[in-house]
Amino acid sequence: MKTVITLNINGDRYEVAVNPWRTLNEVLREDLKLTGTKLGCGTGDCGACTVLVDGKSVSSCLTLAIELEGREITTIEGLAPNSEELHPIQESFINKGAIQCGYCTPGMIMSTAHLLKQNPRPTEAEIRAGLSGNLCRCTGYNKIVDAIKDAAEKMSSSSD
Amino acid sequence: MSKNFSVVGQSLPRADARIKAVGAAQYADDIILPGMLYGKLLRSPVAHARILNIDVSQAKKLPGVKCVITGDDTLKIKFGNWRLVPESQDEYPLAVDKVRFIGDEVAAVAAIDKDIAEEALSLIKVEYEELPGVFSVEEAMAEGAPVIHELNPNNISLQRKIDYGDLDKAFAECDLILDNEFKVHAVSHAYMEPCACVAEYDHNGRLTVWTSTQTPYFVQCLLAKTLGMRENDIRVIKPFVGGGFGGKMELRKWEFCAAFMARQTGRPVKFTLTRAEELATGRRRHPMSIRSKVGFKKDGTLVAKEFTAYLDGGAYNSMGPTAAFLCGNFGGMLYRYPNYRYNGYHVYTNKPPAGAMRGFGAPQALFVAETQMNMAAEQLGIDPLDIRLKNAMETGDEIPGVATISSCGFKESLLKVAEMTNWREKRRQLGKGKGIGIGCYSFISGGVFNWFNTQYNFTRAEVRAFDDGTVHLLTMASDIGQGCDTVLRQILAEELGLKMEDIRLTAADTAVTPQADLGTWGSRVTLMAGNAVRKAAQEIKDQLYKVVSLKFDLNVIHDLDCRDGMVFAKNRPDRGIPFGEAVRLAQRANRGEPIIGYGSYTPRGKGLVTPAFSFGAQVAEVTVDMETGAITVDEMNTAHDCGTPINPMSVEGQLEGSVHMGLGYALCEQFIMKGGKTLTATFLDYKIPCAEDMPPGKSVHVETYEPDGPFGAKEAGEGLVSPTAPAIADAVYHATGYRCTELPITPEKILRGLGKL
């Protein structure tokens, strides 16, 4: 039996009919065609599917859509204000060489958004711990860590 | 040699970074077409069996199921990448008569949604007559072992040999001979994007396939063969690809099934693998059992080496024939081995097939070679650095009958990494849980040997120039995340004096981009496609130089150049016009014909292996907890020779990714198998290093200029996956006295080795 729910995603309201076992990842990617959010494992181990729910990072592959009525969902598509401007985290990822194949990137960026909200000036160890739920096979993580340091600096100096 | 570059050598952000950062890059699984069906594969649950019967009748009756196929529905044409040796092509699109590993593809279903497709799989009834299986090279080669392929009654699918010098005589003259056995294990590519593909039929005899591949041309050719279609009726497009590392360079069963069922149903069909399918049944690095006998003079001079490798190929050849050759090739690289004999045996077992993977034969061969160099140094009382410097290859060296080293920064890399790490002093301080160790590598810049047996050049580029000052580069080179879309733009921008944003790029579409390109593997793209791009640019320049010469009535002694958007006389820069204006004049002068340049590259006269070799040295520093055996890698430092780094930031990124993969190979990644069953089928059980596991470290590019490479460039970042494991193993030995000869290095092995368990 499908249930009709309303999801708030990136500031827009979507009405969708879902089976109770349908994951947020399936709803985003298949029903709403918001394919920026990736699926790397489906078991919550790789972090490629990370999105924010009420500002907190979650694995969309392990989150049932039906639980999210009324919650604020942010995906990678909702981070940049428009196609001209980027979010500072996105800018830093681009400029610091933190993106190679790009498949882990949306999840990495959403995890970073969560991390920097909780801890605007993280140490390197805190950054690495903050990324422990996100796997990357291309970069060896170091340039991602550099990008996050860079973003943290930009974001805290602009909010100072 | 001109080092006065404007775009080459710049650490520019990737051309595709922005689209990836905003989540707009489309990977194969992101493609959703109207009316699309979802495909699923039924895989064998047994390692070795005869198929007695397959009943798909119930599955076909399930509402929403549109197509169910088995091997009997196909043309039963075998395929494989080694078209040059047809008998090596040992795979059917779907199993015929037999299954040979757990995961072998038996049937496929396409339905209106994934849930129905999965339910349909459970309704297919397969009757198997189970056969005994073999799960190691030793079992497979034993007398009376079960036969996996009828063509190869001893389960050895092929043997590769390399032999030069007089081995027996040489060993007789040695002061020290080491004769050791090693075992190296299988690991996963673990690219983050699980394989996916979408096929669409045009109802007019033609198919389009979007697929996560490194080699669109291979997929096109082998699909045509297995589907009984013409190559030109199949269009393969590579969308964004989320990593490959060698694991996406063959025709795969789901590509065949998507294409076959799209043609059958008239509807687009998508297949997307699960991570469990990837890890439990996907390609992997070849495990090997190796025996290596190596002889030295007292002063450390290498005299002879006899190297024998048994490759556990799993159930099919895949890229095994190449792995078997390259392992022997790398076993004789890095140092001068005046007498060398290699025998490589590719052995079938009832396990998921091994295939190409980053480094491809080198990590195995170099783990052995580098470990033995360290053993020999100790026994001869020589610093491991010095024994390497004594035997290191140099520019101009020849590997008999195989290759000439056209550029080599190996000695410089050794000296540099020693300096960076304060090697000599640290190495003299003995262990107590702290150690420093060294590993080195050499790698190829693309392969010379035409095993795919293509009739085309190895790569080709087309450049179209426009009067608005822009150009369009068309190439079948395949960016899978390594960055060739950026690097080829940099090469073209440098040649034509344009900016990165002036270059439109269309890549990896077999119906549109120039035939052909063998794809992304063996670190071939920068050198080969880069050379083709330079030649195509040269053809553009030749056309533009004519009209600029004419316009300024230039004396014939003038040299012309393209730079900063201008085409001009080198010594009289005032005599020049903007690039776009030159294009317009050239078109006018040629009655409206477009300005197009073509360039091809095929390595000719470059020996048997590759046009150019990279080199490097890496030093690991570790701490081992002597109570628990836990290993912490404190630092990894590297000096390497990749010729001219076209994009230093990209090269560093590749290098750091190599350290990551090498670290996993050395310490934490392995497939735990029970018979033919892979037990480590999630990222929780199959552990790739996390951000916290990565050691700090610096890297230095040693300056060389490769004459055969574009702007002096050669391989970067693939060979570097090799030195990490032997360097860590050596550091662990230095720290503890435990010498690892069987990867991975685990706390348990250390404690056992030290007699503490």
Your description of this structure?
The complex is a heterodimer of chains A (160) and B (757). Chain A is an alpha+beta fold and 160 residues long. Chain A has two domains: 3-78, Ubiquitin-like (UB roll) (Roll); 88-159, Orthogonal Bundle (DNA polymerase, domain 1). Helix content of chain A is 34%, strand content 16%. Chain A has helices at 24-31, 88-95, 105-118, 124-130, 142-159, and strands spanning 3-9, 12-18, 50-53, 56-59, 72-74. In chain A, a hairpin with a 2-residue loop joins strand 1 (3-9) and strand 2. The model of chain A has no long low-confidence stretch (mean pLDDT 96). Chain B contains 19 helices and 30 strands. In chain B, strands 3-5-1-12-9-10-11 form a seven-stranded mixed beta sheet, with helices on both faces. In chain B, strand 14, helix 9 and strand 15 form a beta-alpha-beta unit. Chain B is α+β, with helices and mostly antiparallel strands and 757 residues long. Chain B has three domains: 17-24 and 458-601, Aldehyde Oxidoreductase, domain 4 (2-Layer Sandwich), CATH 3.30.365; 31-132 and 192-243 and 248-281, Alpha-Beta Complex (Aldehyde Oxidoreductase, domain 3); 359-449 and 609-753, Aldehyde Oxidoreductase, domain 4. In chain B, helix 9 packs parallel to helix 10. Classes of the chains: A alpha+beta (160), B alpha+beta (757). Chains A and B meet through helix 2, helix 3, helix 4 and helix 5 of A and helix 1 and helix 17 of B.
